[in-house]
Amino acid sequence: MIKSKRVSLILIGILSFYLVVGASAPAYGMHIMEGYLPPGWAIFWWVVALPFFGLGLRSLTRITQANPELKLLLALSGAFTFVLSALKMPSVTGSCSHPTGTGLGAVLFGPLAMSVLGTLVLLFQALLLAHGGLTTLGANAFSMAIAGPFAAYWIYHLTIRLTGKQKIAIFIAAALADLLTYIITSAQLALAFPAPVGGFIASFAKFAGIFAITQIPLAISEGLLTVLVWNWLQSYSSPELELLKLIKQEPQINESI
Question: Which candidate in 78, 143, 178, 201 could, as Cys together with 219 as Cys, close a disulfide (CB 3.0–4.6 Å)?
Answer without folding.
Answer: 178
